[in-house]
Amino acid sequence: MTKNSNPPHDTASLNEDGRPQISQNPDIRYLGKMLGDVIRAYGGEKLYRQTEYIRSSSVDRRRKGSSVEDVDHGLGALSLDDTLDFTRGFMLFSILANLAEDRQGVAKEKGASVAEALEILRANGVSEDEVNKTLGNSLIAPVLTAHPTEVRRKSIIDHKSRIAELMAMRDAGLAETPSGDTIENAIFRQIALLWQTRPLRREKLRVTDEIDNARSSMEQVFLTALPKLYARWENDLGFRPTSFLRLGSWIGGDRDGNPFVGADSLQYAISRNGASALRYYMDFIHHLGSELSISSEQTDIPQEVLDLAENSGDNATSRADEPYRRALSGIYARISATYIDLVGESPPRPSTIKAPKYDAPEDLRADLVIIASGLRQGGEGALASGGALGRMIRAVETFGFHLATLDLRQNSDVHEELVAELLNIAGVEKDYKSLDEDARVKLLLNELSNNRPLSDGWHEYSEKTSHELAIIRAAAHAHAQFGPQCITTYVISQTQSVSDLLEVYLMLKEAGLYRVDSNGNASAGIMVVPLFETVGDLKNAPDTMTNFFAIEKMKHLAEVRGYQEVMIGYSDSNKDGGYLTSTWELYEASLALAPVFKDAGIAMQLFHGRGGAVGRGGGSAFGAIQAQPHGTVQGRIRITEQGEVIAAKYGSVDNAVASLETMTSATMLASLQEIKISPADLEKYSAAMTTLSASAFHAYRDLVYNHDGFKDFFRQMTPIAEISGLKIGSRPASRKTGGRIQDLRAIPWVFSWAQARVMLPGWYGVGQALDEFEDKALLKDMAQNWPFFETILSNMEMVLAKSDMRIASHYSQLVEDKALSSELFGRINDGWHKSRDGLLEATGQNWLLEKNQSLFNSIELRLPYIEPLNLLQVELMKRHRSGENDPKVRDGISLTINAIATALRNSG
């Protein structure tokens, strides 16, 4: 461990290994004690004492810095039944610890609120007009995906949410709940229910389950959080910004590697999401109508409101002098009719008034504006204050009738096969797949110059082609019903060339979503977006987009739209080239794309495909956005939110508000703040990163792809086989059969290494690069003065702190070939120590997270609870792999995976 001359901590507060003792959150102490009482009451005294012995032994070992092997954890005394109960108890502690930390909100970083960002921008000479103009052209969107790293059942999450609500009441000084229970008894009851709730799913998640789970979050959190944020920003900004913050989703439209997503799931997602938005509007109008008892006998009513009331269809004599109520009855009736038309069923509280449906959200908004304008008149607008109606208008602007914009996504290989089949059957080209790129582009552009469909109703197409065409037609139907905002984007995985984009426009043409007019100008209801994922694809991205904009029809589409989106993938680029190379290539690709778009006169919108784990682009969203190359954000950014991160960042309205404001303020600063690094320094830093990246890439590829035994080592050391059998998502673990690392999805790749406490995708190769780099002073300079490099090291530091090579060594013993295990684990262990030591030297620290006490506390608190779970997991995997078929062994493995993931949090 490197040492500085002036350690910042009093030695009396240090553990025996020289690191500071943790300070525990009082909420964690309170909830932990409550959990202990529940275990004693429902699990019995024996289980309580066993659990407490294991916990205290593990805590003591970490405090003293003893070896894992030198401590009796008490695990050998557990029967299989005891093991399941003990694991459940530790998992619940992690859930409660997560809850306590989430209640503190997102860690504040300077500038992480819009008000603070405005102060920084004003201090830098940025005018309010510039801010207003930027926000007027902005789009900021978290995009929820169904990637399977959220291992908890929804029932578990619901109980956790109720405990959070009760803790908020306790904070407010309440002694009782509204129903009369004491707060303490109510919390105990919820924890007892958690203890008695089955933690594992019995059935594999279906796509419809994933849709419903996400919709529940959108309904309970986002519908309230986004309008609440806008109301705050109006005060901070001094003007009403456009509705630039939107919500996106992949769930029901992303079928890359998931054969269970089809036209039916697309229709289900659109319909259910729309139903949630419309129910929210109806509930709001119902409550507002009960409040607005304004009588025309007591005050003057604007004519527009009177007209709205007269045409409402509400002829009740009891409300004859209450035009606002009558107007709102008519609005409610029209929303009810819209619900019936779009959703295909009656709403929970249908209107008794016959009224026409709203054709578009803008029509509903117009009626609400009439009500709001009327309330502003008289009394200095006092009745319009309070913002409720303003928030409703904002909700309609933001969520429309669709709630969240649903993206389509599919792999370019699938598109190639589909287009080849269509062209062959239509008699246009028998062997499209044999054509080179130039010939493909010429052929596709010829087909895109007319509106003639290639498919017909009498030919029999392959199952895959029929499946994909049905999805495109379902998207066109959704547009006709819910409006074009319900689906705006089609993402192409593994984009490598311009023909990959043109193929999708050809597919869209089959459903009328791409058309050309009499002048040959093209229009498209859905934007086709390339996803550049591998290191090679990222390097080729500027050339691909240059060639794309060189096509007049394609450039015209972007000009009409006003921008073109490009998605960059963190997961597959990391799996392909390692953490450092992936991060640098993403940076370089973003930077290289900017002049391509500038020369074309098209605004660039980057879509960042980030996961929860650092190996998949995870870490601080604020830091990540701030670290983007200057000039690449431009007020427009979309970011995927995946797995367990959704519950962590958006599990409550307060957390969602904090997370969304952080994303917005970071985007404002990244778009408008002047770069603080001189061109000379930036050139020097970039050259250093190129050298570091090349070194890290060589080390990573040499281990993962150039060693014949690595595939078997990985599959035997980690619980990848056991994870593949978990019922935590609808998507298969691999794109193809055969077991190659190349075909394995990035999520199980990262998730498996996290379970084994190696976290290899988040650091491997960096240590070798830092060790070989000669100019250590330059590394320190970069760590202190370059936000990009600072973010790289900060994210890696978190991963290194969560990993444990002593625990990982127990997993390495699962590898059958002991010589292979010794060789490869030795390389991994050496790489970890080099990564840690190099990071500490560059950042000037004595230990990991020395400069981030809150994160140090959070991780250190959890590690004593994870360690016994890892040791149990290894033992259960040994038994299972040796042929033991007891279902409790399989359940125990699944439960430890669940518990470890919960404790590690951003592990996938």
From TrEMBL:
For the keyword Ubl conjugation, the answer is no
Single GO molecular function: magnesium ion binding
- Gene3D superfamilies tied to this protein: Phosphoenolpyruvate/pyruvate domain
Which InterPro entries does this UniProt record tie to the protein? Answer: PEP_COase, PEP_COase_bac/pln-type, PEP_COase_Lys_AS, PEPCASE_His_AS, Pyrv/PenolPyrv_kinase-like_dom
Q: Which PROSITE patterns match?
A: PEPCASE_1, PEPCASE_2
Which biological process annotations from GO are given for this protein?
Answer: carbon fixation; oxaloacetate metabolic process; tricarboxylic acid cycle
Q: Which GO terms describe its cellular component?
A: cytosol
Please give the cofactor(s) recorded in the UniProt entry for this protein: Mg(2+)
Task: Please list the residues that make up the active site.
Answer: 147, 575
Keyword terms: Carbon dioxide fixation, Lyase, Magnesium, Pyruvate
Query: What spans are recorded as compositionally biased (Polar residues)?
Result: 1-14
- Give the enzyme's main class according to its UniProt record, as a single word: lyase
Catalytic reaction equation(s): oxaloacetate + phosphate = phosphoenolpyruvate + hydrogencarbonate
Recorded family membership: Belongs to the PEPCase type 1 family.
Quaternary state and partners of this protein?
Homotetramer.
Q: What is this protein called?
A: Phosphoenolpyruvate carboxylase
State the species of origin: Sphingorhabdus lutea
